[in-house]
């Protein structure tokens, strides 16, 4: 039987960003340095495939520090942690490695700087996401107010409208965030504007790549986890750009083939925590069903790299 023709447009950049790459390397290097088990507080990055692989290598994933014994090293995930977490690790005399992405740490420092200057912070982010919890946890309770939508801005009760600054989660939708910032500036004209947006280069580039594909495709597949903020935003960007079908899939087995019937042009993107092997798997699944041509749509080349913490660059030693 002849297969129907289909073009797969591959978004580039896609998949791992420098922060995810560094966080995974930190767990691998910690296992090499200290042997198994090494404990990791929260999924190191939001991807089941990555987490399962590291678990097989000897990493133990826990949600809270008190689930880890004090005589084994513990790693904090790429999303960042409230200040209370490293403080508690120190109190318990634990060896810990912080895999917080340097671009998230930059937002933490920004929040602290504004706080020292007496400004109250407004954070644009998603309630309950570990990055939001970590960033808000850099300052004392009540010092960071969270807004998730334009509507939330109207309900804000601030200490002094003339002494405010805002920060954002790094993985938000650029367009939605711009609308919230506009509402904040309208309500609080004196609000301090960041020198550079907190939404990171990887989020920006992946959303730009999906937009660049969108006028060529009838359907978009985003490879990523349901709890991955930046992956979910890519699906929304695809929908907003007019893709009738925009699906988030963890891997090829989750593709809804019925929704792709009669389609001849499909875009494939991958969130910042999705490994390339899952993209290869999706391409192979298309090749089984369609006479597939793959075309790369590259909007920008990424050359960002982050060093791992010094403790892992030093010679092996036991904790
Ligand atoms: S998505 Fe951005 S902030 Fe998050 S880990 Fe990657 S580079 Fe860092």
Automatic annotation (TrEMBL):
Dimethylallyl diphosphate binds at residues 46, 79, 129, 228-230, 273. InterPro entries: LytB/IspH. Binds 1 [4Fe-4S] cluster per subunit. It is an enzyme of class 1 (oxidoreductase). Pfam families: LYTB (PF02401). Isopentenyl diphosphate binds at residues 46, 79, 129, 228-230, 273. The keyword Kinase does not apply. Catalyzes the conversion of 1-hydroxy-2-methyl-2-(E)-butenyl 4-diphosphate (HMBPP) into a mixture of isopentenyl diphosphate (IPP) and dimethylallyl diphosphate (DMAPP). Acts in the terminal step of the DOXP/MEP pathway for isoprenoid precursor biosynthesis. It comes from the Bacteria. The active site is at 131 (proton donor). Its cofactor is [4Fe-4S] cluster. Keywords: 4Fe-4S, Iron, Iron-sulfur, Isoprene biosynthesis, Metal-binding, Oxidoreductase. This is 4-hydroxy-3-methylbut-2-enyl diphosphate reductase. [4Fe-4S] cluster binds at residues 17, 101, 200. Pathway: Isoprenoid biosynthesis; dimethylallyl diphosphate biosynthesis; dimethylallyl diphosphate from (2E)-4-hydroxy-3-methylbutenyl diphosphate: step 1/1; Isoprenoid biosynthesis; isopentenyl diphosphate biosynthesis via DXP pathway; isopentenyl diphosphate from 1-deoxy-D-xylulose 5-phosphate: step 6/6. Belongs to the IspH family. Its EC number is 1.17.7.4. GO terms for biological process: dimethylallyl diphosphate biosynthetic process; isopentenyl diphosphate biosynthetic process, methylerythritol 4-phosphate pathway; terpenoid biosynthetic process. One of its GO terms (molecular function) is metal ion binding. It catalyses: isopentenyl diphosphate + 2 oxidized [2Fe-2S]-[ferredoxin] + H2O = (2E)-4-hydroxy-3-methylbut-2-enyl diphosphate + 2 reduced [2Fe-2S]-[ferredoxin] + 2 H(+); dimethylallyl diphosphate + 2 oxidized [2Fe-2S]-[ferredoxin] + H2O = (2E)-4-hydroxy-3-methylbut-2-enyl diphosphate + 2 reduced [2Fe-2S]-[ferredoxin] + 2 H(+). (2E)-4-hydroxy-3-methylbut-2-enyl diphosphate binds at residues 46, 79, 129, 170, 228-230, 273.
């Amino acid at each position: 039987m002849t297969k129907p023709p289909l073009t797969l447009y591959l978004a580039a950049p896609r998949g791992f960003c420098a922060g995810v790459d560094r966080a995974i390397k930190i767990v691998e290097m910690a296992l090499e340095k200290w042997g198994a088990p090494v404990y990791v507080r929260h999924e190191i990055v939001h991807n089941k495939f990555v987490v399962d692989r590291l678990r097989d290598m000897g990493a133990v994933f826990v949600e809270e520090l008190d689930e880890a014994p004090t005589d084994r090293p513990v790693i904090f995930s790429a999303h960042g942690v409230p200040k209370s977490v490293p403080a508690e690790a120190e109190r318990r005399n634990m060896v810990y490695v912080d895999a917080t992405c340097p671009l998230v740490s930059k937002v933490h420092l920004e929040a602290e700087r504004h706080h020292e200057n007496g400004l109250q912070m407004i954070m644009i982010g998603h309630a309950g996401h570990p990055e939001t919890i970590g960033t808000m946890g850099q300052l004392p309770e009540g010092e960071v107010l969270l807004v998730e939508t334009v509507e939330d801005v109207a309900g804000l009760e601030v200490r002094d409208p003339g002494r405010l600054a805002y920060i954002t989660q790094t993985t938000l939708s650029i367009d939605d965030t711009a609308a919230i910032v506009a509402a904040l500036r309208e309500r609080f004209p004196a609000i301090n504007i960041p020198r550079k947006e907190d939404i990171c280069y990887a989020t920006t580039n992946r959303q730009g790549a999906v937009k660049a594909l969108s006028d060529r495709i009838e359907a978009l597949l985003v490879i990523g986890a349901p709890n991955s903020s930046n992956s979910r935003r890519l699906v929304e960007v695809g929908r907003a750009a007019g893709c009738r079908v925009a699906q988030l899939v963890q891997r090829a087995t989750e593709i809804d083939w019925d929704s792709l019937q009669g389609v001849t042009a499909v875009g494939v993107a991958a969130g910042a925590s999705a490994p390339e092997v899952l993209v290869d798997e999706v391409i192979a699944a298309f090749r089984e069903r369609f006479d597939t041509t793959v075309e790369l749509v590259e909007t920008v080349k990424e050359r960002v790299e982050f060093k791992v913490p010094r403790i892992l660059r030093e010679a092996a030693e036991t904790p």
